Amino acid sequence: MGLWLALAAYLAGSILPAEIFVRWKTGRSPHEFEDNPGSGGAWRLAGPVAGMITILFDLGKGAVPTWIALRAGLSLSELIAVAVAPVIGHCWPFYKVIRLDRGGRGLGPATGALFALAFREVVPAYVLGALAAYRFRWLPSVGIVAFPLSLIFMLWWKVPPERLAAAFAVMLVVLIRNVGLLWTVVQTRGKRLPH
Q: How far is it, in rounded angstroms, from Cα 189 to Cα 193?
């Protein structure tokens, strides 16, 4: 069951509503506007309704399969595979991998998976991440602040090790996808932050 659930989660992760909304409104991909096919890009390029639908869809495609995997009592490796699959699908959709193109940054489905894994511990970290994003006017600040704090809170409140391992794997995928973005921030010292 774990393999099929991970495959379905990857395919669901490959659906990028921001790409759909922006192409419907402008006829172009968010990448053509040098923007990201996530909720922020959808909001900026297609409006607040498109942004909100994208946020909810991206959260759901990470949360639902992870919640199912937890309820099904899958093994540790299967839980990790299911939790990271929608994030991988969001970052590297199957139809873009063929063209060596990228999808989104992965924060939406990663957040959904983390909410399913440890909601009580993750929510306070995300509140602080949202405050940082508001302060710096840069959406990726949410994850930069929330991911390490989530791990700290999960350790503090003694989340079961299998949930902690899956959460770490999800965060690692997002980190790998965004290494270039983080390097840009370090090099520019945040003077010209990308969207």
A: 9
Spacing of C-alpha 115 from chain mean position: 11
Please, what is the average pLDDT of the chain? 91
pLDDT tens across 97-142, in order? 666 567 899 999 999 999 999 999 999 999 999 999 999 888 788 9
Cβ neighbors of 1 (< 8 A, separation 6 or more) are 72, 74, 78
Task: Enumerate the H helices of 15-160 as residue ranges.
Answer: 17-26, 39-46, 48-72, 76-91, 94-97, 107-136, 141-156
State the CB neighbour count (10 A cutoff) for residue 131: 13
State the pTM of this model. Answer: 0.90
Residue-wise pLDDT for 168-195, tens only, equals 999 999 999 988 666 555 555 555 555 5
Q: Which residues contact 75 (CB under 8 A, 6 or more apart)?
A: 2
